Amino acid sequence: MAIQQGAQAPEFTLFDTERKPRSLSEFHGKKTVLVFYPGAFTGVCTKEMCSFRDSLAQFNSLGAQVVGISVDSPFANKAFAAQNNLDFPLLSDFDRAVSKAYCGVYEEFAGLKGYMASKRSVFILDPNGRVTYVWISENPGTEPNYDEVKKALA
Question: What does R_g of the chain's alpha carbons equal in angstroms?
Answer without folding.
Answer: 14
